[in-house]
């Protein structure tokens, strides 16, 4: 039952033909009554992406890349967990547990794994990379009962690292990955050296509402925008995930629209997501929701844990990298209320919510700097 089994992707051609047929049969709505993104993903932007998906995108390229990295599955607490595992050849490499979020997947890390495991500069820190797919995401199994919130996932990830026989490892994450990584920090397994977040989690205190600090004012403004204009997806997924799931599992165009809106708003771009990501990168991610039909199961994590996102404090060594395009920026003083043993902090000058995806070089350098600061 504790066996780690190799996993090879080989999606049947029939599934890809079905996708093509569904894209061809998309029933399009009329365009929005505004010429921007304020009513959601614009018709023209989605039609452009769907046209490329239908006529230019090559899934087999992504499939080959994932297979070449090394994919595995192991059953933990009754659920098959899929994960990438790329050990370094370096004896001094640090085991690194990377956890993605929504609407992300393990493909967020494809641009950093090679440099993390086999650095181009020989004397820089190397890592053994372990990147699991959250339960109900990607090619991990879908929970058939309630209870798979971030605390249980943190316990499962700790079990995964034990099965891989890693000692003195580090956990890292953003979005749901940040919540899971914080939960690992709260468990404080003896083997965990520390954690790193690229979505630092912190909440304002009573005095912050009267603050004149520009960083605090920016954080409060972004929090207000998120609550009023950007959080509809989370309200739907945290209250009625099954309802939205029907559309996300049945219609590839609906799935792409649901995800593209967040990629547009949450990347640090100059007006278009394609400023920082390619259509291939985004569609690789969409395919990890479409092929295993995880639109509903991924949304259920919000039902399980959204109301407790980032609760509690972490006392083991922690580091945080604050990227300027983060959806909910938290000033250092807020984060220190949550990460009470903050040994590393850095404010970056570019990058957004999907740090590894958008800024792979900065992401890698931040992890190396954080490890260097860990006791």
Write the layout of secondary structure elements.
Layout: E1 4-7, H1 13-24, H2 43-55, H3 59-69, E2 71-76, E3 79-86, E4 94-99, H4 113-117, E5 127-132, H5 150-163, E6 169-173, H6 176-187, E7 192-197, H7 214-230, H8 232-239, H9 241-250, H10 252-266, H11 279-290, H12 295-305, E8 318-322, H13 332-335, E9 342-347, H14 355-358, H15 360-373
Parallel strand pairs: 4-5, 4-6, 6-7, 7-8, 8-9
Antiparallel strand pairs: 1-2, 2-3, 3-5
Helix pairs in contact: 1-2, 5-6, 8-9, 8-12, 9-10, 9-12, 10-11
What brief labels describe this structure?
epoxide hydrolase activity, Rossmann fold, alpha/beta, hydrolase, Epoxide_hydrolase, 9 strands, 375 residues, Alpha/beta fold hydrolase
Task: Give a written overview of the molecule.
This is Alpha/beta fold hydrolase. Belongs to the peptidase S33 family. The active site is at residues 175, 302, 353. One of its GO terms (molecular function) is epoxide hydrolase activity. It comes from Qipengyuania citrea. The protein is of the alpha/beta class. It has one domain: Alpha/Beta hydrolase fold, catalytic domain (Rossmann fold), CATH 3.40.50. The chain has helices spanning 13-24, 43-55, 59-69, 113-117, 150-163, 176-187, 214-230, 232-239, 241-250, 252-266, 279-290, 295-305, 332-335, 355-358, 360-373; strands at 4-7, 71-76, 79-86, 94-99, 127-132, 169-173, 192-197, 318-322, 342-347. Strands 1-2-3-5-4-6-7-8-9 form a 9-stranded mixed beta sheet, with helices on both faces. Helix 5 crosses helix 6, helix 9 (241-250) packs antiparallel against helix 12 (295-305) and helix 10 (252-266) crosses helix 11. The longest helix is centred in the middle third of the chain and has 17 residues, at 214-230. The chain is globular and about 55 Å long. The two termini are 35 Å apart.
């Amino acid at each position: 039952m504790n066996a780690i089994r190799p996993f090879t992707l080989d999606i049947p051609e029939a599934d890809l033909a079905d996708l093509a047929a569904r894209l061809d049969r998309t029933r399009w709505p009329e365009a929005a009554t505004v010429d921007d993104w304020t009513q959601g993903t614009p018709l023209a932007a989605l039609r452009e992406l769907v046209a490329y998906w239908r006529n230019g995108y090559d899934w087999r390229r992504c499939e080959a890349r994932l297979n070449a990295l090394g994919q595995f599955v192991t059953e933990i607490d009754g659920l098959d967990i899929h994960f990438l595992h790329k050990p370094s050849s370096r004896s001094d490499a640090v085991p690194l547990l990377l956890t993605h979020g929504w609407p992300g997947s393990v493909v967020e890390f494809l641009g950093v794994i090679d440099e993390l495991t086999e650095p181009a500069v020989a004397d820089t820190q190397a890592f053994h990379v372990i990147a699991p797919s959250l339960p109900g995401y990607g090619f991990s199994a879908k929970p058939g009962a309630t209870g798979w919130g971030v605390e249980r996932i943190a316990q499962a990830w700790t079990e995964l690292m034990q099965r891989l026989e890693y000692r003195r490892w580090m956990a890292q994450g953003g979005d749901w990955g940040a919540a899971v990584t914080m939960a690992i920090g709260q468990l404080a397994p003896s083997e965990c050296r520390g954690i790193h977040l690229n979505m630092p989690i912190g909440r304002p205190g009573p005095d912050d509402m009267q603050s004149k600090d520009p960083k605090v004012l920016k954080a409060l403004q972004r929090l207000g925008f998120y609550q009023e204009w950007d959080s509809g997806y989370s309200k739907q997924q945290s209250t009625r995930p099954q309802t939205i799931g029907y559309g996300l599992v049945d219609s590839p165009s609906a799935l792409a629209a649901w995800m593209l809106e967040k990629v547009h708003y949450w990347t640090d771009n100059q007006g278009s997501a394609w400023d920082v990501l390619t259509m291939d990168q985004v569609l690789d991610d969409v395919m990890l929701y479409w092929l295993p039909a995880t639109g509903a199961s991924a949304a259920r994590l919000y039902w399980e844990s959204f109301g407790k996102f980032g609760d509690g404090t972490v006392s083991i060594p922690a580091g945080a990298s604050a990227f300027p395009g983060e959806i909910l920026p938290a000033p250092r003083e807020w984060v220190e209320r949550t990460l009470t043993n903050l040994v590393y902090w850095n404010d970056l000058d570019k990058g957004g919510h999907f740090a590894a995806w958008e800024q792979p070089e900065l992401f890698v350098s931040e992890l190396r700097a954080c490890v260097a600061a860990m006791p």
